[in-house]
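Lab notebook, bench 4. Continuing the backlog of folding jobs that were queued last week. Each job is logged with the same field layout so the records can be merged later without manual cleanup. Today's entry covers DH200=94 genomic scaffold, scaffold_339, a 287-residue chain. Filled in by technician R.K.

JOB TYPE: sequence-to-structure
TARGET: DH200=94 genomic scaffold, scaffold_339
LENGTH: 287
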Amino acid sequence: MENFQKQLSITMGEEKSCNSIGSAVHESDVVQAVVRKTPPADYTLKIDSFAFLLEMLENTKAKSYSSRIFEASGYDWKLHLYPRGDEKRNGEGYISFYVSIQGNATLPLGWQINANIKFFVYDQIRDEYLVFQDAREEAIRFHEMKKEWGTAQLLDLKIFHDPTNGFLLHDKCAFGVEILAKRYSGRGECLSLPVNIFSTYTWKVVKYSKTGNVIYSDVFVMGNLKWYIMLYPNGGQNQEGKNISLFLASAIEDTNFRIYAEYKLCIKNQKNDKDLERTSKLIYGFY
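JOB STATUS: finished
OUTPUT FIELD FOLLOWS
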């Protein structure tokens, strides 16, 4: 096994991205191989006779074997195995292995799916799996122009055929995959710089002496947002009996909306120009 691991470290070198007809295939810059005992959770491809698979492909002049459609993470997929290697993608002398997403007709327009993918090769001697994944552990992005992902150089055929490694034993072998996928929702937010909008609103309070504890102005629009003013003739918010209290409030019903505003409140002096002004700031929905 130690000799196999040394060979593996040599063969799992840098791989480059390449294209195929109908879909772009991005191959990992570095493929990392680890060993684990638990089998693949999503799909296993068992081959009772590897020799028969080669014969079948040769007789039909096919280069690869595709699995049945299977479900993983709520989506339909297929595995594609090249037992002699995918020559078009520099996979000659290797096992080439890919996964592709299916059901294009059921996917919404502009769909995008991010998936973490692990490929498995079963070691029948030690009853464990050699697991291949992107060494960077980055999610693979599937979309309309890229429906397939994998590696043309998954495993050196010399290593695969060596019976002491346990991958091909008595003409039997098994491959597998795990897929953890999540659709890209496009949701998010942007904290933008405030837009300078200068506007005024005048509220005339009629019969001030007969008002109650609090008076509300009509709702008005400023900066494409709805606002109103609250007046406490006898004071509000711990100012009862001390001061007149005046507040600007947002009339937005959406609790998920966010506002930052700088404003000035003014009480007009009806005898002269000595108005009472206070400048303040309003933060709504940020906490």
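OBSERVATION: The chain has two domains: 2-183, 208-284.
SIGNED: R.K.
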